[in-house]
């Protein structure tokens, strides 16, 4: 089945872009349509952090403290019952490995939202926007819910957004960068979620990826590396399906669509 057929069978609208790294070969399904970033925003955040560390602007061992006011619920320290402190580099690891929103908030405080936007501009990702840290996104959800209006957080024209093609461009830039880029891909390799991109590939294929999830929205971007050295940047975004966060059929469709796109490039 083609990626488009896989999305249709899962009952979602899918947006995909895959490129063979080191070449101009690529395939896509509506790759230039705007899509909601959700927690995929943590990838450019971590990349800008790693770049600032390499430039001597930040000490990765500096510590931050997740207090009650910072913990808004979720995985990692975001859901802790008690205060905890950790280094900036561990905040980056938490943000990418378990999608810890509090760790990402604290890292945004040090890195600066404006600097993440500058990174995107430097890379030519003109259609990728970042409205702020995860806490800022949550505030829009709370405000819109209280007002009884459609959630801005689910509208790519009114929230942090991107396109699949721009996300594979970001991954390609990181893949070419043996310093900060390689560090971010190593953190992404530690992601505990294996049910989307990783599920679509055999165990001998290495996957470094980051998910993004909101009601009715399921995303993942990553770099897939085969034993023969072939490496591929893949970005898959879906919209639709039940708003419940647990939809293993859609999760699997993301992996299957990614595999179909990569196999098309390999052939």
From TrEMBL:
InterPro entries: Beta-lactam/transpept-like (IPR012338), Beta-lactam_cat (IPR045155), Beta-lactam_class-A (IPR000871)
Domain of life: Bacteria
Name of the protein this chain belongs to: Beta-lactamase class A
Molecular function GO labels: beta-lactamase activity
One Gene Ontology biological process: beta-lactam antibiotic catabolic process
Residue ranges annotated for the Beta-lactamase class A catalytic domain, each copy included: 17-238
SUPFAM superfamilies membership: beta-lactamase/transpeptidase-like
């Amino acid at each position: 089945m083609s990626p488009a057929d896989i999305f249709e069978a899962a009952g979602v609208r899918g947006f995909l872009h895959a490129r063979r790294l080191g070449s101009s070969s690529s395939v896509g399904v509506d790759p230039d349509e705007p899509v909601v970033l959700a927690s995929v925003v943590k990838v450019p955040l971590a990349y800008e952090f790693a770049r600032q560390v390499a430039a001597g602007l930040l000490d990765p061992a500096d510590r931050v403290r997740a207090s009650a006011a910072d913990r808004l619920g979720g995985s990692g320290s975001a859901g802790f019952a008690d205060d905890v402190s950790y280094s900036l580099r561990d905040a980056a690891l938490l943000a990418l490995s378990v999608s810890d929103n509090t760790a990402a908030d604290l890292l945004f405080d040090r890195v600066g939202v404006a600097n993440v936007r500058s990174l995107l501009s430097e890379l030519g990702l003109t259609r990728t926007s970042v409205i702020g840290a995860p806490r800022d996104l949550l505030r829009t959800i709370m405000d819109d819910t209280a007002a009884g209006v459609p959630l801005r957080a689910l509208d790519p024209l009114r929230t942090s957004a991107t396109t699949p093609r721009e996300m594979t461009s970001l991954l390609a830039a990181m893949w070419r960068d043996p310093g900060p880029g390689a560090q971010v891909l190593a953190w992404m390799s530690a992601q505990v979620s294996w049910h989307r991109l990783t599920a679509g590939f055999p165990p001998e294929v290495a996957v470094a990826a980051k998910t993004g999830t909101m009601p009715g929205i399921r995303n993942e971007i990553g770099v897939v590396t085969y034993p023969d050295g072939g490496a591929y940047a893949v970005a898959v975004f879906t919209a639709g399906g039940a708003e419940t966060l647990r939809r293993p059929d859609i999760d699997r469709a993301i992996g299957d669509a990614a595999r179909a796109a990569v196999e098309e490039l390999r052939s």
